[in-house]
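Action item from last meeting closed. Structure (200 res):
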């Protein structure tokens, strides 16, 4: 993350993302596949880093060796062709986007860190209850711990979507996109940027 200044001179916290270039590597249609989608490829690598089936799939359409392939649903009438190059200029400043990524893995975490529990009292003779969860259920009724009760466990490392982020900067020359606010995952993590579903 970094910050930029808008036209009013106010500071805007942004995350700078290297977005593309991507290539359309496959087109799926309702007639042939039962649904409409495109497969896009990203990050050129030396051919030795890909297996032969993947290399054959890309070479069939004279595409460079691409390490990451992802499928995205599109409408049947959207004009995408196999081999087409998709760059960051499909976005515009002021547009709203959803950013999907995998959150940072935090390992096994307690309830205070994982769920924001307050913990037990810090006085009145307590010795080992400060970060404990406390009661997790009732007595005879229901006589069990309910499913979904928040407890300690593995934290992070999950797919997460940041919704309705504003595009602040588009730099087609360097394939850079800046969105307002944070995005999920560590530096260098893989992100999927798509049109916002909840605009307004």
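Sequence:
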């Amino acid at each position: 993350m970094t910050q930029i200044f808008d036209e009013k001179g106010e500071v805007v916290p942004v995350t700078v993302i290297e977005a593309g270039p991507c290539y359309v590597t496959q087109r799926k249609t309702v007639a042939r596949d039962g649904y409409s989608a495109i497969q896009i490829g990203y990050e050129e690598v030396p051919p030795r880093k890909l297996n032969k089936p993947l290399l054959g799939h890309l070479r069939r359409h004279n595409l460079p060796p691409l390490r990451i392939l992802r499928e995205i649903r599109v409408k049947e009438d959207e004009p995408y062709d196999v081999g087409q190059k998709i760059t960051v200029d499909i976005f515009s400043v002021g547009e709203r986007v959803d950013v999907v990524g995998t959150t940072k893995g935090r390992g096994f975490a307690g309830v205070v860190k994982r769920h924001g529990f307050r913990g037990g009292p810090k006085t009145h003779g307590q010795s080992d209850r400060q970060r404990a969860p406390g009661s997790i259920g009732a007595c005879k009724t229901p006589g069990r711990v309910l499913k979904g009760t928040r407890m300690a466990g593995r934290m992070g490392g999950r797919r997460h979507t940041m919704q309705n982020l504003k595009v602040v900067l588009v730099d087609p020359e360097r394939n850079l996109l800046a969105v307002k606010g944070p995005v999920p995952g560590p530096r260098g993590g893989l992100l999927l940027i798509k049109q916002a579903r909840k605009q307004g």
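Note appended to the action item: Helices lie at 30-33, 52-59, 111-115.
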